[in-house]
Each structure stands twice: as C-alpha cells, then as structure tokens.
Amino acid sequence: MESKTEWRSPKELLWASWGLLLLLEAFLLYAAFHGGQFSRIIPWDDCSVLDLALLRLQTASGAASLLGLALKAQDLAPHSPIADIQAMLGYLVSGGRVWGPYALNVAPLALGLWLAWPTLARRPPHVLAPLLLALSFHPLTVYSLTNLKSDWKGGFFAALSIYVFVQAVRTMSRRDWLAASALMGAAVLCKLTAFYVPPLALIMLGYFEFVAALLNSTEAPGRSLASSIVEALKAMLGRWRDIALETALIAGPYGLFLLYGSHSHFNTIQYIKAALSSTWTDGLSWLGRTEFYGPTANPAWGPVAWLLPLTAAISIYIALRSRRAELWLPLVLGLPTLALFAAPLIFAKTSNIEFAGLFIGIALGMTLALAADIASEGRRWSLAIGALLIAGCFLSTFESYRRPLTPQQLRDQDYAVSVYETVTNKIIALRKDADTGLNVYYEDTIYPEPNLNLRYFEKTGGRLDVTRIDALPGAPKAPAFKDADFSLVASPDPGVATVGYAPDQFHWTTKNSALAHDFVSHLPNQTLVQSFPWKGGRIELYRRVDPPSAAASAPPASAVSP
At how many degrees (to 10) do helices 174-190 and 81-94 cross? Predict the structure, then answer.
C-alpha cells in the first residue's frame, strides 16, 4: 500500500492550470466565433440548450418568488442540468449574447480540478506539472471548452474521478473516496439521458470498494484467498456509512433531479425510447461499433488513443522489474471499468463519438494514474513520460482542429445560413405580433431548428413559440399546424423517402418527411411563402392566412336596401 506521507505541491500549479484553461478557452472560442464552427450554424445539441435557456429565463421573469420559479422550472424538460444552468447564467453574464454561455465552459472544469486537487497535490511538482499539461491539452478538455453539450465535461469529471479513486484505494483516505464519488456524481449528471450510467457507476464503486477491502485483508500473513474475500466483505459492511455516502454522491444528484421534475420528464423518456428504437440505427454490427470507438477508426483523437496502451505496457514492464504489486492497481481497477462502460456503446443500435465521453474520460484517468506511477519511480522516467503525454495530447488536439471545412462544406453552411436568415426575416416582416408561433415538423431533416429562435432573439429580443412535431402519424398534433402562424416543413423529391439533414450529407432520419408537407399544403388556411432547394427535396415555409369572418365580409348596414 502507498505511504500516507504526502508531497505538498505548490498551489500555484492549480492557479496556473486554471489560467491555462482560461487562455485556451479564449483562443478556441475566438477562433470558433470568427470563421470557425460557431460563425455560421450553432450545432446540435448546443443550439437546443441555448434555446431552452432563453425559455427558462423567460419563465423565470414571470415568477413572483423562488418557490414559483422552482415550480415553473419543473415544466421544462431538461437536456443536461449542468449545461442548462450554465447557459442561463451565461446569458445573464453576456446580456443575452450567445458567447456568454460558452465563456462559462471553463467553470465546471475548474471546479473539477479544485475537487481533485488535494489528491493531485500529493505528487511532486516535476510529476504533477506534466500531468496537468497533458490534461489541459487533451482533446476531451478542448471539446469541453468549446461545446455546451455536457458529454465532454462528463468525460473530464470521469477522468479526474478515476485518478482519485485509484489513490483512494491505496490510501483509504475518506477525503479521497468522497472527492472521487463527487466527481463521478458530476459525470453522471452530465449524462442525464443516458439512463444506464448511474447503475454502471454504482457497480464500479462496489468493485473499487471490494478491491480496497481485499488489499487490506490480504496483508495478514498466511490468510487464504477465500478467507480474504470473506474478510473483505466484512470490512465493506463495517464501512457501510461511508459507502452509503459515496453512493449518495454518485447517484443522489441524478435521482433528485429526476424526482424534482418527474411529472414533466415525458420528453426525456421519449428520448430514451427513441435511442432504443430503430430511429437512430447506424447499421453497424457490434464488431463495427467496436472499431468505431477504437483507437484506429476515429481521426478526432489521433495519437492520443495510443497513450493508454503505451503507458500500460511501460507500467507493466516497470512493475515486473520492480516487483511492486501496487503498480498493477490502475490496470486492475481501470480495465474492468473501461469494459463496463464500453458495453453499452458497443451493443447499442446507434453510435456517435460524443456518446463515448465517459468512456474516453475513464481511459484518460487510467492513463494519468499509470503515467504518475511511472514518473514517480524516478526522474529519468518522469521527463520521458511527461513529454510523451503532452506531445500526444497536443498533437491530437492540433490534428482534430487543423482540418478546415472543405470549400463545398463552407458553401453548404453558407447556404443554410442564408435560408435561416431569409426565413427569420420573412417571419419578422409578416408576423402579427411579437408572440408569433412557428410549428416545425422536424425529424432531423434540416439544420438544427432552434437556430431560428436564436436568430429571432438576436434581431428582435423576443422568442418564437416553436413547436417541434416529431410524430405526425399520431394525428393529435396535426391540428397544431392549423393554429400555427407559420409552418416549416420538408418536401422530398419524387422517389425520395427523406430529405437530407444538410446539403452536404445525410444524417439520422425517419420516413415521414412527406407527411407534414402533404398535410400542410392541403390546408385551406396555409399559403406557401417561399421554397428553398435542399438535398433530396425542398424546405418550404408556409404562413397561415385566415379567411375573413362573415361579419367582416358583410356589407355595412346602411348600404343594405330595405
């Protein structure tokens, strides 16, 4: 077991890490808003988070008390509590400008470093500094700084949590156990719609506790493995209060949040059902999905994907030479955890690199724990491992951001922006009042429709009442088209089942694109305003024009002959 004698690394390293993250975020966001990914279209799911933040602020302004605000907030379906709160605070900080929510991306990461710092600070500065630099330049951190969607932040929290958990098993420090559990609880909360995460996190906790108890029980000489297991289980029972508190820190925030909004979580449940249905099927086998998340398939991670197997190989070599059993601990703890969190990704019906945020975070946490052990064995390893980590992370970040959009992609995005601008300006010019509604029949057919709200807000300071209709065949929502002031629908070309998600690519789609168009185009009170060519069809904007009432169309009474 590791000695409890601790180094005290200077707190200046923590401040330097915060400063580095802040400078990195400022550079990345400036590039993103000036010719980068946010200068044209705000991507899914960020635009949805921003749009809902505007609705929440509007709701908050109508609350007469904190209790009234809490009750009103229950009616708003969450996407991610951390991202939602960050977006609202960011809008308040920036006075309603879109950059505000993004500027606060650094805050959750700084909080995570602060929670992990008492454990991190036990390493000498020549070991800790390279770890912090590698963590700062890791693509997981870079994506956390440039996206509101909290999957990446969940991975960042998971990385710190795994690192602290490894040290907690060694030291049996109550502070380490609680800090690691709190970090994992934050990671769980970042993945609110991933219903499988809390059970997996609790299974992981039980495994870590068992390994810690087993290591302590085997210290008695002459004890058999069976008796050691029995003693370990008894030791876990003796720590039931601590384990209960750790369980509460991991799953409690998630459970409380769902309980708080239980009556309004229909959208969350529908989202989970959609993820389990054939709507988002990627067509890959479990072997294909394994390759998709593997180190060779995804160019976004570049060299960083090889850091874990490389540090693991070096760690095994040193452990065999030094015969120090504790050097195996990160592998004993991390590899089963990695497999545990990989299973849902591999056997799911859909795939997306963002879904793997926690998986990548666990791999990063293992890498940092292994690298810290290797570097702590001697200064000759410290420099080499530190340079390897920093170079791998920096090259991966550089690789993932150096590839600009192709000229065709730029033209496609510019065209999408022009469509949004035209639609927004048409609605503003033809609207009857500031509360004009816009029904959007949306099945991943067009670019993210909340961008309409963001543009409308930028131009008017108001918010469109957008209704997203996903399942027209159900019929109950069909009358909403009759009442909408405007409707935006997709019309596939003859022989085409769906309209492409974007002009330059297809995306997840269902087979109902034509239904909304057929319904709206045959309504007597809907008039086509403008049609825009789109991949596989058109995007059409309709306006409701009610016929004059009988009273209004009747001639004046004085003009009627006796």
Answer: 80
